[in-house]
Amino acid sequence: MSTKQEIFTLLGGRVKIHRSNYNPTSDAVWLAAFAPTNAKTVLDVGIGTGGVSLCLHAHNPDAIITGIDTSPEMLAACAQNAKLNNTNINLIQSDITTWRTSETFDLVLTNPPYFNGTPAHHNAHHNADLPKWISRCIARVRPMGTFCIITDATTIGTTIAEMSKKLGDIHILPLFGAKRTAERVLISGRLGTRGISTLDQGLPMNCEPILRDGLTIADFLSKLSQQ
Fold first, then answer.
1. How far apart are CA 83 and CA 109, in angstroms?
2. Given phi > 0 = left and psi -120 to 50 = alpha, else beta, which region is 50?
3. What is d(CA 203, CA 198) in angstroms, rounded to the nearest whole number?
4. What is the pLDDT of the chain when averaged over all its residues?
5. Fewer Cβ close by (within 10 Å): the C or N end of the chain?
6. 30 and 210 in contact (C-beta within 8 Å)?
7. Do 146 and 106 meet the contact criterion of CB atoms below 8 Å apart?
C-alpha cells in the first residue's frame, strides 16, 4: 500500500481509495484475491468503503457487483471510491440479517463483524450474530454458486459449522502473521455440492505477490508450482 495526499492505493496502484475514518486493510485484499474470478454477479456483504469490491473488480472487471451495508456514511464513502476507480457498484442500505429479497448471486463474499466487545468509532467488525450473518449470506448464493469469507481464526469453528449446513467443497486457507498460529482464515464453499473439505498449508499475511503485486491466490500458487 502506498500513500499520496488523501488517496492511498491497493494492488500496486490498481485500486485507489480516499482516506477516511475507516480504511480497508489487507483483509480486503486477501478476500478479493481468494474469490473465484469467473463470477458474473457478486454480492459484497458489509461492503464498508468498498475495498473488497474494488479489488475484486480489478481481478474480474466484467463482474456486476452489489454491495450492502447498514451505514449511510460507509456507503457514501464507497460511492466516492467507486467513482474514483471508474467502477459501477449497486449500493443497498440494509442489514443482511433482515434484508428481504429473492435475488441470488454467483458469488457472495464478506468480511464480517467477527469481534466482540467495545466497537471502534466507525462500529465496524464488532458484535454481530456471526452464525446468523453467515446463514443470511448463504441464502443469497445461487445454486452451485460460491460463498467466501475472511474471519478471525478464533471464529473458525463457528464459521465452518454454519457453512457446513448448506455448502460443500469447503476450502480453508489460514493466514499467518508473526506468530506460529493463524491470525485470519479464508474459507469458501459451494451451494448444492457435497465435495470434501480441503485445508491448505496457509500463507503469510504479508505475502507481497498478493498485497503489492496484486496476484490472485490461484495465480500465486500456480506460479509457485511452476518453480
1. 21
2. left
3. 15
4. 91
5. C
6. yes
7. yes
Burial of 37: CB neighbours in 10 Å, binned 0-12, 13-18, 19+:
middle
**Spatial separation of the C-alpha atoms in residues 15 and 3, rounded to whole Å:** 12
| Phi, psi torsion values for 152, nearest 5 degrees | -65, 145
- State the sign of the Cα–Cα–Cα–Cα dihedral 164, 129, 44, 66: positive
Query: What is the enclosing helix (H) or strand (E) of 225?
Result: helix 217-226
Confidence of residue 225 (pLDDT cuts 50, 70, 90): confident
Q: Does the structure show a pLDDT above 70 at 87? A: yes
Q: 107-160 pLDDT, tens per residue?
A: 999 999 865 555 455 445 455 799 999 999 999 999 999 999 999 999 999 999
Per the structure block, which three cell numbers stand in for 211?
498485497
How many CB atoms within 10 Å of residue 167?
25
Q: How far is CA 166 from CA 53, 141, 218, in A?
A: 24, 10, 24
Q: Which long-range contacts (CB under 8 A, 24 or more apart) does 64-68 make?
A: 64/40, 64/90, 65/89, 65/90, 66/41, 66/42, 66/90, 66/91, 66/92, 66/105, 67/43, 67/91, 67/92, 68/43, 68/44, 68/92, 68/93, 68/94, 68/96, 68/99
Which residues are CB-contacts of 117 (< 8 A; sequence separation ≥ 6)? 126, 127
**How distant, in Å, are the alpha carbons of 4, 55, 112, 135, 145 from that of 97?**
37, 25, 12, 8, 20
